[in-house]
Amino acid sequence: MTTVDPRPGAAGRPAVSPIDPAAAVGAPGGVVGAPGGVVGAPGGVVGAPGGRSRFAAFVALTKPRIIELLLVTTVPTMIFAAGGLPRLGLVAATLLGGTMAAASANTLNCYLDRDIDVVMHRTGRRPLVTGEVTPRQALVFGLALGVAAIAVLAGLVNLLAAALALAAILFYVVVYTMVLKRRTPQNIVWGGAAGCMPVLIGWAAVTGRLSWAAVVLFGVIFLWTPPHYWPLSLKFRDDYSRAGVPMLPVVAPAAEVSRKIVVYAWGTLACSLLLVPFGGAGPVYAGCALGLGGWLVAEAHLLLRRARAGVRRLAPMRLFRLSITYLTVLFLAVAIDPFIRF
Fold first, then answer.
1. What share of the chain is helix, strand, coil (3-state, %, to 5)?
2. Which of 104, 189, 316, 324 has a beta carbon 3.0–4.6 Å from 146's, enabling a disulfide?
3. Residue 15 falls within a domain, yes or no?
């Protein structure tokens, strides 16, 4: 397991340690080094204004673009589990609870990661960095969202869906953010399990239980996460290195990262096809899964070829964007499947 030297100032990094969440969470003075400002008040970070309304700043804490991608998988899963259109009220309640659960996890992630966000260009405009929201406000907001999410799912959906949402929040915040992210390059592999939970929540919302089909859909997203996130990490390798976060591209050469991306891309393709024998998906879905998976694998191999050839501009974001298209279209096929089986 790869670890990063947590000593202040090690390897030229800022004096605040990016390894220990308590360096930011417990310190009454906050984080030193916020762009555009200095920290001094116990209330949190004082920095450059972000130019957003207060409402927009709180929304930004929830990482809405990530939530959109999670919801793309929830509704198709519910349709597939129901074998048609589920009750609209159930879909609405599940989406509301799921959105608040994801928003809670993302907000608490921002709260815990604010010490490394201040030294990464990619995260330099997050509300806790700019000072638009104080750490205390973010903590209260994140916890309130989590409580509301569990209450909505337990009251309007079912207890299994609520329990799965609680597990997702705890896994993302505690296991990924607090334990894995700063300690091992396998962080995104195992931490990505939190992003797979919406399909289980959606399935449980419709059926009140889990099945092998739900496990297959979980596996698709689990195996898809490294080919989705490691290209982004390649693009922002210097950011992660500066923050002391041992993402795989920080501790391994691009060729090794690309080789592992290829392995996971093939795994994603193979797992997606398991929905036919284990979920009863029809030939239209099977054709889509095969074609989309082949596209993902081909693009992963192209990245590996460029990395092995020592190409200076790897263009990893091409695979990153393709991975989003892959997941969106694959789950569209999941949603359509119950209506076109023959």
1. 70, 0, 30
2. 104
3. no
Same domain, 94 and 186: yes
User: Does 242 lie in the same domain as 161?
Assistant: no
Its pTM surpasses 0.90: no
* Domain membership flag for residue 299: yes
DSSP symbol at 42? T
- Single out the residue of 116, 168, 121, 177 nearest to residue 145, CA to CA: 168
Amino acid type, 137: Q
Do 169 and 182 have their domain in common? yes
Tokens 């450059």 — which residue? 48
At 342, is the pLDDT very low, low, confident or very high (cuts 50, 70, 90)? low
Mind listing the pLDDT tens digit for each residue in 280-306? Answer: 999 999 999 999 999 999 999 999 999
Residue 43: inside a domain: no
Is residue 262 one of the residues assigned to a domain?
A: yes
Contact partners, residue 236, CB within 8 Å, separation at least 6:
120, 121, 122
Q: How large is the average pLDDT for residues 212-218?
A: 97
Q: Which residue has the higher pLDDT, 250 or 35?
A: 250
- Reference 267, options 296, 246, 299; nearest CA is 296
DSSP state of 282: -
